[in-house]
Amino acid sequence: MLGAIIGDIVGSIYEFDNIKTKDFPFFGRRCTFTDDSVMTIAVYLAIKNAKSDYSDLEDKAIYYMQKLGREYPNRGYGGNFRFWLINPNPKPYNSFGNGSAMRVSPCGFYAKSLEEAKILSAKVTKVSHNHPEGMKGAEATAVAIYLARNKKTKEEIKEYINKHYYKIDFTLDEIRPVYFFNEICQNTVPQALEAFFEANSYEDAIRNAISIGGDSDTLAAITGAVAEAYFGIPEDIKNKGISYLDDKLKDIVNDYYANLNR
């Protein structure tokens, strides 16, 4: 989960001020956590507090996303999702925004099988982002995380993604000059995954994601989640990243890792 959160924090200052280089201060001035981090933490709380068979996970996802979203209201939520957060009777609204993918990482980490990763992803996604592309973007992210966590090579992960989700037939150098801000799954998730595929470390993956521009915090959150599963996160980056959270969110993140390792 911290992989996504740190990516979000590092990318937060570049979302509307894109850079096209990997050479930047990793934790720049004015970095902060955004809606990507808040919703990722909400998904973890939903999984943690759901029944063991996850039969109530959709209800828990709605409850915790609304609860945390209302507690942290000014974190950059999209317009439709902002209304969803305050709606007393929230319904899915056929979204294929990249918000489905940026928040899904706990599903990939907690799943006990590839099939369960897909099931958990679907349950936490369809409560809002029920468009096929929104569902696909989240599932591809959760699956990549699950495969990375289970020691698959980058080549094996990419082969699976290419076969079942997206044809990733570009390099970052090829798209960097022309890639622009985009908030939809199909133009964010493949790019975020390629940033991971080209990386040689967690930090390098985040730098890759931010270097192409676009929706930088969300790109880096998606990339960072997969990179954490594959590379792990260096302690100095982990400690610096968590320092940007308030005490409540720090406690939840620490609880996440305590439960994850049981």
Characterize the biggest β-sheet.
none
From the N-terminal CA to the C-terminal CA, the straight-line distance is: 16 Å
> Given this structure, which CATH class is correct?
Mainly Alpha
Give the CATH topology.
ADP-ribosylglycohydrolase fold
* Domain tally: 1
Summarize this structure as a short list of keywords or feature phrases.
ADP-ribosylglycohydrolase fold; single chain; mainly alpha; 61% helix; 262 residues
Give your account of this protein's structure.
This protein is mainly α and 262 residues long. It has a single domain, classed as ADP-ribosylglycohydrolase fold, CATH 1.10.4080.10. Helix content is 61%, strand content 0%. The chain contains 15 helices and no strands. Helix 11 (189-197) crosses helix 12. The longest helix is centred in the middle third of the chain and has 18 residues, at 132-149. The mean pLDDT is 97.
In short:
The protein is mostly helical and 262 residues long. It has helices at residues 2-11, 35-49, 57-71, 79-86, 99-102, 105-110, 114-125, 132-149, 154-164, 172-175, 189-197, 202-211, 216-231, 235-242, 247-260.
